[in-house]
């Protein structure tokens, strides 16, 4: 038997048309001017679309009647979309090769990459995002790799330097130290390299606030301060550091 005469499972009788799907099997998302790019996240159940109207729309696949979010910022048609970073970030690329990073939950723009600043020339042709490398490959007139570093959660090492508001401060270049004065008439000297307190003076102007301060031209002889009590005080310093 000739193999051409063997009917296949998908073959249809001559002159017949394929069966029509039920309306419940399809959903229509009406987007002005059409869709050029989309991505779908099954875990978060979010569909994102972008197109000629330069807007990004977020959809619930089961509610196609209206978008649940609208992201504006691109100035040319959108040609690439990718949901990444544990389904929390959205990477979008427009046809002018502008790259934008969005926070899906807040629906806000986190980063905008200007083509000229990143040496991207020409219109975007094709893109690929690598979740493993957290990098975006963008092909235009040349192939460009954009690597997005993830900010690590940092423990804040800041501390309260004064109990009252700081009204003035000065940087001493020879000693690489910072002098700060507060509303409580406290004057403190800090090491710029390690942030440690070198020395401090309380009651520099009695109970009056220190409102301004200056160093001598050499930065190695004295500190001049002016208090709210309309008095000027001069504090001599040592030859090796700003110690009163």
From TrEMBL:
Claim: rRNA-binding is one of the keywords in the record: no
Alphabetical keyword list: Repeat, WD repeat
Taxonomy, superkingdom: Eukaryota
InterPro entries (UniProt xref): WD-EF-hand_domain, WD40/YVTN_repeat-like_dom_sf, WD40_PAC1, WD40_repeat_CS, WD40_repeat_dom_sf, WD40_rpt
SUPFAM superfamilies: WD40 repeat-like
Placement of WD repeats on the sequence: 35-60, 71-112, 159-200
Protein name: Uncharacterized protein
Source organism per UniProt: Pelodiscus sinensis
Record lineage: Eukaryota, Metazoa, Chordata, Craniata, Vertebrata
